[in-house]
Amino acid sequence: MRRVLVVGISGAGKSTLARTLAGELALPYYEMDALHFTGPGWAVDEDFAARVADIAASPSWIFDSFGYPEVRDLLWEHADTVVWLDYPRRVVMPRVLRRSLRRTVRRERIFGGNRETLAAWFRRDHPAWWAWSQHAPRRSEITHRTTNPRFAPLRVVRLTTPAETRGWVRVQIKT
Question: Matching InterPro entries, A to Z (predicted)?
Answer without folding.
Answer: ATPase_AAA_core, Cytidylate_Kinase-2, P-loop_NTPase
